[in-house]
Amino acid sequence: MTTAVGYIRVSTREQALEGYGLEVQERQIRNYARDHNLTLAELYIDAGESGSEGLDKRIGLAAALREIEAGRATVLVIPRLDRLARDLLLQETIMAKLRQGGGSVISVAEPDIDGDDPTRTLVRQVLGAIAQYERTVIRGRMMAGKAAKVAKGGYGGGRPRYGLMAEDKELVEHPDEAAAILRIRCLRAQGCSLRQIAATLESEGRRPKIGSKWHPMAVARVLARDESGCHASSTSSLPESDAELGLMRAEPSAT
Prior knowledge:
- The protein is of the alpha/beta class.
- It has two domains: 2-145, 3-Layer(aba) Sandwich (Rossmann fold), CATH 3.40.50.1390; 164-250, no CATH class.
- The protein has ten helices and six strands.
- The protein has a four-stranded parallel β-sheet with strand order 2-1-3-4, sandwiched between helices. It has a two-stranded antiparallel ribbon with strand order 5-6.
- The longest helix has 34 residues, at 118-151.
- It is elongated.
- Mean pLDDT is 75; it is low at 229-255.
């Protein structure tokens, strides 16, 4: 019997939108191996990896190719061609690597795609181009969904601004940072400069979002963001003098 290795892959994005999970793919490969008298030596998995990533990121695929290059298997079985790659150039590079190692590819969904004759190459490359197009569409859907969520005031990913934190994919108030914002606002209302506020925050042990210390520019940014969501004075976060403005520009951001 011919010895084969299987390969399955799913990205988080695809799993969310398509429901083509690892269990479904594994069942397809095992059924195919049983029905076609293949000895399935091993099943390799890349979970949460995009089909556009190379072998340096896809550890499972790299391991499957090594089995074929070492002569321990001669066939790579995949549930469908886009599990191998969602990038046409990458797909053809992997196929060439397999052939160089003396192996071949069997796709359960698209039989008889391997080989370098013109017809098979055309069919395979058309399928690869479709997979690449679908990857672009999927990315577009995700970005559109994220933009719509942000437009409605939801959390679209990334680092939350100072005073907020991500919890269960939603933005909620960060208690310590919210207290720091209140402290900054009070100090500013008392007439403290940005430098004085930064020094006070440091002395009280309050930490910025990133970085190890507060800088005047970071304080100014927190005040500016705070003003956009409250009825504070429109001039309260402006630098008090050209000297302070110069200091702000010279200092790196710490938020």
